[in-house]
Amino acid sequence: xxxxxxxxxxxxxxxxxxxxxxxxxxxxxxxxxxxxxxxxxxxxxxxxxxxxxxxxxxxxxxxxxxxxxxxxxxxxxxxxxxxxxxxxxxxxxxxxxxxxxxxxxxxxxxxxxxxxxxxxxxxxxxxxxxxxxxxxxxxxxxxxxxxxxxxxxxxxxxxxxxxxxxxxxxxxxxxxxxxxxxxxxxxxxxxxxxxxxxxxxxxxxxxxxxxxxxxxxxxxxxxxxxxxxxxxxxxxxxxxxxxxxxxxxxxxxxxxxxxxxxxxxxxxxxxxxxxxxxxxxxxxxxxxxxxxxxxxxxxxxxxxxxxxxxxxxxxxxxxxxxxxxxxxxxxxxxxxxxxxxxxxxxxxxxxxxxxxxxxxxxxxxxxxxxxxxxxxxxxxx
Length: 381
Known about the structure:
2% strand
């Protein structure tokens, strides 16, 4: 009953916002909506043409992304996935960890977080949890997460606002996702050590498949980062009708990570027209890129564990044929260019395969052998 009563309160608060300008200004000023994204959801849902909330949320979310970035003090273009390959070796994991640790040590992050990166999984107890909670609050991370949720719900409900406003809002939301992704990298030693990072507004828990030493868990944490972010936020923005703005963003966005977020969300949520757009995006990816490997794993997980219709499973299997074709017929990395090729052409027109090559990989026996090979490779690691 409490759940139902809370939503009635939010609904009538949203209705009152429409009728009373002073109350509306109060909710939309000084981020007073932060703890009640449901009010924004109802307010924008009542009238999908109004863009006053969108404008406020756009401004506030941009400011919070910038605030978190400035407080942490690590360049916003930092992307540990840039140029890394599908199957990460121990040396590559060590390289990523070293790069992250160096960034953290030079940042404005709290000493407790720096210690976790410097002391090789230094063990700490409850006070560390409190220090992380303080960090997430003091560095405006919690406010950013709540603002992203409110902005996402507003975008989903604002069906009739101008297309350019939708695109700008989505770009800002994805920028917030990327900032949260970086925060998860800074917290990665905690996850590797404890198997969890649970704080107000941010909840990441490793499942039973994350086994082994802290170093082995760290590898899984790095790889799972994009999926963790998408899973955390997707239900606030997902809609069968919101596809077009995502499709446009997937084509025009200049951030590799944000493009990857969009591709994962489309695979998980499957709005109208998703299959064609994801296929085209996958065809631009380098055959050895992390992004293609992560998409492959996401598709396999959706086929094995997702709630999908027979038609959706058929489409997901057809997406696997893109990966299969990439592995079989895409140009290999030359020895002279090894280590640079992927970094320079992770998402590029020159990675595209002809359609007939992809269709040929849809043959059942061909795809079956490819999947068996991947499964054998996974078991031997």
